[in-house]
């Protein structure tokens, strides 16, 4: 089974399904989203959508009310296509530890979602995900996905590694190969047994090759669609791996075992 470990709700969903079909992807992890760059028809509208992304990555608008539309879009898409999408639910990080735990119980576990994410703490503030890790631990070890590219810093990646070591029963996935800090991400994930590295939107092909070589059992194929493309992401994995067990693991086996669906 080929599983895209990282994608966001598309408008319309049919464009996402077509991209998955083109890539031969069976299922995709689906996160809610506030920006919709796929709606853009020109530079002006793209700037408008990307400003929403910038706002979210800076930690602004990080409230329950700010997430409600994204949650509704996510649940509508999951209900319409349960055979293609695996739902993960994000939560605001500005709440108390008790409120975060209650929200995860109600909006993630209570709705049958398989994990938490994509979390986007502001630059230098990765420690703010600790209440989420504590709640994920209390829920039996739900996987948690954290944004790994900018504005995530190298120090943030070190913070994530320390937190992962504190909650070893919680699989912690760093997305986008850690962005420009990919070498640090590879080393930290390699040396932290409960961490995984998702490989989407890599700017350097040999970064993907080296990540898979270092941690073949904890690297995950992902596209970050609509920011990335499933066809290109799968092609990258296949360019840097030979047919066989390692490629099969990265393209879906690792995630399938993590989620208990293989």
UniProtKB/TrEMBL annotation:
<dbReference type="GO" id="GO:0016787">
    <property type="term" value="F:hydrolase activity"/>
</dbReference>
<dbReference type="GO" id="GO:0019748">
    <property type="term" value="P:secondary metabolic process"/>
</dbReference>
<dbReference type="InterPro" id="IPR032466">
    <property type="entry name" value="Metal_Hydrolase"/>
</dbReference>
<dbReference type="InterPro" id="IPR006680">
    <property type="entry name" value="Amidohydro-rel"/>
</dbReference>
<dbReference type="GO" id="GO:0005737">
    <property type="term" value="C:cytoplasm"/>
</dbReference>
<protein>
    <submittedName>
        <fullName>Amidohydrolase</fullName>
    </submittedName>
</protein>
<feature type="domain" description="Amidohydrolase-related">
    <location>
        <begin position="53"/>
        <end position="260"/>
    </location>
</feature>
<dbReference type="Pfam" id="PF04909">
    <property type="entry name" value="Amidohydro_2"/>
</dbReference>
<dbReference type="GO" id="GO:0016831">
    <property type="term" value="F:carboxy-lyase activity"/>
</dbReference>
<keyword id="KW-0456">Lyase</keyword>
<dbReference type="InterPro" id="IPR032465">
    <property type="entry name" value="ACMSD"/>
</dbReference>
């Amino acid at each position: 089974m080929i599983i895209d470990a990282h994608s966001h709700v598309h408008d319309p969903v049919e464009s996402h399904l077509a991209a998955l079909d083109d890539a031969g992807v069976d299922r995709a992890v689906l996160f809610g989203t506030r920006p919709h760059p796929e709606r853009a028809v020109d530079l002006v509208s793209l700037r408008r959508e990307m400003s929403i992304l910038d706002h979210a990555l800076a930690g602004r608008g990080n409230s329950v009310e700010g997430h409600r539309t994204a949650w509704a879009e996510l649940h509508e898409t999951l209900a319409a296509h349960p055979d293609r999408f695996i739902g993960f639910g994000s939560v605001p990080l500005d709440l108390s530890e008790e409120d975060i735990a209650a929200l995860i119980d109600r909006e993630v576990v209570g709705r049958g979602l398989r994990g938490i994410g994509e979390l986007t703490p502001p630059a230098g503030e990765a420690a703010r995900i600790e209440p989420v890790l504590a709640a994920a631990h209390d829920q039996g070890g739900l996987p948690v996905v954290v944004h790994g590219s900018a504005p995530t810093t190298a120090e943030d990646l070190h913070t994530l590694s320390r937190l992962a070591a504190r909650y070893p029963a919680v699989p912690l996935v760093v997305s986008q190969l850690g962005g420009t800090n990919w070498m640090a991400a590879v080393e930290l994930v390699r040396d932290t047994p409960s961490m995984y590295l998702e490989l989407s939107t890599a700017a350097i092909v040999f970064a993907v090759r080296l990540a898979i070589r270092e941690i073949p059992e904890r690297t995950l194929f992902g596209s970050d669609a609509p920011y990335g493309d499933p066809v290109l992401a799968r092609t990258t994995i296949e360019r840097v791996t030979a047919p066989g067990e390692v490629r099969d693991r990265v393209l879906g086996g690792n995630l399938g075992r993590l989620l208990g669906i293989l």
